[in-house]
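User: My advisor asked me to double-check a structure prediction for Large ribosomal subunit protein uL1 before group meeting. I don't want to rely on an old file, so could you generate it fresh from this sequence?
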Amino acid sequence: MSQKRSKRYKKAAEMIPADKKFTLEEAAELLKKLPATKFDQSVTLSFRLGVDPRKSDQMVRGTCPLPNGSGKSVKVAVFAVGDAADAAKAAGAEFVGFEDLIAKVKEGFTNFDVAIATPAAMVEVRKLGKQLGPRGLMPNPKTGTVTDDTAAAVNAVKAGRADFKLDKGGNIAAAIGKTAFTPEQLAQNGQALIDAVVRARPATARGKFIQNITLTGTMSPALPLDVAKYVKSAA
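Assistant: Sure, here is a fresh prediction for Large ribosomal subunit protein uL1 from the sequence you gave:
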């Protein structure tokens, strides 16, 4: 059954030239010209990758600092004790603790966007797989969220970044800002994410790594990018 689209969405779709492939800058400029919504939409960059998601050695995952931030207020929970806990609090983490925070999460508390833990704390935090795993909140060394330098981790998360992970269909999608951002800010954030995805290419990947890229707002049509413009990094 086809999805019913709003008049605003249909009008936006009519403004997108058929078969055109955009640069990041062109896509960001057009996105801001499309009929507006009543809220500041998140802007997402999505990739179709030439890897086999069924193979563990072809997993693509990472994190990317965004030059212009994410435009999102991020709530952070830190599992730590001692100096690491004090540093996390000083850096602005909303929830800091260890045994008490673990008990709270076991009871269903997940009112945070990112979880950070020290390596020592992970011994117990790993037991929260049922609570954190399904929500993508389990700390992971690859995303910089398992570290003794909790202050740096909190600052990095608060400054704005994009976390990305290959899904079962071989795709990646990550937010790079809001429609309130300037086209230049969105383009800079988008380029940073493209570069990060390219760096995360598995050694076992064969053929064309990045097959297509689209830029879209939460409730706007997708704008296909010209991957050839990024051929040096996309091949």
